[in-house]
Design brief:
501 residues; alpha/beta; 3 domains; eight-stranded mixed sheet; 15 helices; metallodipeptidase activity; protease; lysosome; endoplasmic reticulum; metalloprotease
Length: 501
């Protein structure tokens, strides 16, 4: 029997063939030659597929490289041209005019109206509002005073969805713990007391669980309220707020964040055996959900208008500071990206859609409802993008998607070499796009030098003073280049690992 051997076979296959040819005639005649033929046929097909896919990727890389001049035009306009500092100036006008924009507030309504009108005046297409229902929690007046061992006013910020204290407040002794494990060990000491969690900052993802779940864990052991050390690696005596979740079937107790400095001071007092007494007063209220909107604007695609590259940031903020960093900057660069392309007369094959989410801070409420409304068309969503970690010096993107899509995105990022933002990290982050990524849609989040992000996060310090116009120019350029090129490529980003690289 003669077996034709393809010249493209790898060394391992040639070794297998040679070994089989050396076998005694008994087995090879009855079994091995037939098996060898099947093996060679399979490997030959694999070689053809590999060659085809390698050529396909090479063609894609060449196609992407052809956008170098367009990318440079976008960068020049954003960084040095007439659009220089535009996203910063727009953000300043927006935040100075509207202020902070907590879910359910009049200010959020005003912010949505402001943006709707601004997007229309900018000449963007299909500007519209999509209705959503969002939470409505109001902080009210709040205060905390240490009464023993010293009289000391505690700077606090009640946590979103917290219940109020009884009228007149709560006065109780304080138990200080550093972890849920310590709380369980000292459960008998917690009854009738405040629990102060003095958890060290490890990372936001690991440490935020104390803000989110501390109240219910303390309530399980009989605590009357919780004071949570603010979730930040650095503090200048500023409390940080945020959303928290009560567990089903567990008594709801008031909960607020205190400063790192006060939490650490209480820990020192407790270590010395000093009795700590605090009076807490909170007048928070939760009202029925209210009507609101996600805000949408587009550049409609020239060939495949039904296919979408989505850019986004959230319009709501907390009720402290201006919400300039979280997430005014992310929203504004998502607007600026479309403005840059419009200025240059660029219309990609697919639709570019900017969405400003409502009620992200309450768990991505507006984005969840958007997903439920649009998931029927999920096959038409090419890439979903979110900026919600600040618009500081950009480094590149974080990306979630197939191996093939990642390889394509890596080629796209090379177009950003002129501004040194070519990094492509793993695992895109974004409360508002995670459901799309979980469903298989490629996702990207802006990756920035964000070491100071959690210094200002959810505080009165989140103002325009945090923002830098040069950094926002660079973020806008990156956002626009990536969105345009991905939307204009001949083919959508692949979702399955079908292409061998």
């Amino acid at each position: 029997m003669v077996v034709s051997i393809p010249t493209c076979l790898p060394t391992e296959a040639l070794t297998l063939i040679y070994s089989c040819q050396q076998m005694k005639d008994g087995h090879i005649k009855k079994f091995s030659i037939f098996s060898l033929a099947l093996t060679v046929t399979f490997i030959h097909c694999s070689c053809l597929a590999r060659n085809k896919d390698e050529k396909a990727f090479s063609d894609r890389a060449e196609e992407i490289a052809s956008y170098a001049n367009v990318a440079q035009d976008i960068i020049d306009l954003a960084v040095r041209g007439k659009a220089q500092n535009r996203s910063y100036e727009r953000l300043a006008d927006f935040t100075d005019t509207i202020g902070n924009r907590v879910s359910g507030s009049k200010n959020l309504d005003l912010a949505i109206k402001y943006m709707y009108n601004a997007l229309r005046e900018n000449g963007l297409e299909n500007v519209h509002l999509e209705p959503v229902k969002i939470p409505h929690w109001v902080r009210g007046e709040e205060s905390a005073m240490m009464l023993h061992p010293q009289n000391h006013t505690l700077a606090i910020l009640g946590l979103g969805s917290s219940v109020a204290t009884p009228k007149g407040g709560i006065e109780a002794e304080v138990l200080v713990v550093e972890s849920f494990e310590e709380l369980k060990k000292r459960a008998k000491e917690a009854s009738g007391k405040f629990v102060t969690f003095n958890q060290p900052f490890v990372s936001y993802g690991k440490t935020v669980q104390y803000r989110e779940f501390g109240a219910s864990e303390a309530a399980k052991v009989g605590a009357v309220a919780t004071l949570i050390r603010s979730v930040t690696p650095f503090s200048i005596n500023s409390p940080h707020t945020g959303w928290q979740d009560y567990q089903e079937g567990v008594k709801k107790i008031p909960t607020a964040c205190i400063t790192v400095e006060d939490a650490v001071m209480m820990a020192r007092m407790a270590k010395r055996g000093q009795k700590i007494v605090v009076r807490l007063t909170m007048n928070a209220q939760t009202f029925p959900d209210v009507d609101s909107f996600n805000t949408v604007a587009e550049i409609i695609g020239s060939e495949h208008p039904e296919q979408v590259v989505l850019l986004s940031g959230h319009l709501d903020s907390w009720d402290v500071g201006q919400g300039a960093m979280d997430d005014g900057g992310g929203a504004l660069i998502s607007w600026e990206a479309l403005s840059l392309l419009k200025d240059l007369g660029l219309r990609p094959r697919r639709t570019l859609r900017t969405v400003f989410w409502s009620a992200e801070e309450q768990g991505g409420v507006g984005a969840q409802q958007y997903f439920q409304l649009h998931k029927v068309n999920i096959s038409n969503f090419n890439l979903v993008m979110e900026s919600d970690m600040g618009t500081f010096t950009p480094l590149g993107l974080q990306f979630t998607g197939s191996t093939q899509a990642r390889a394509i995105m890596a080629e796209v990022m090379k177009l950003l070499k002129p501004i040194n933002t070519t990094n492509l990290e793993e695992h895109a982050e974004g409360t508002d796009i995670e459901m799309w990524m979980d469903a298989g849609v490629p996702g990207a989040s802006l990756h920035v030098a964000d070491s100071k992000y959690f210094w200002f996060h959810h505080t009165n310090g989140d103002t325009m003073s945090v923002q830098n116009p040069v950094e926002m120019n660079l973020c806008s350029a990156l956002w626009a280049v990536v969105a345009y090129v991905v939307a204009d490529l001949e083919e959508m980003l692949p979702r399955l690992d079908s292409m061998v690289l």
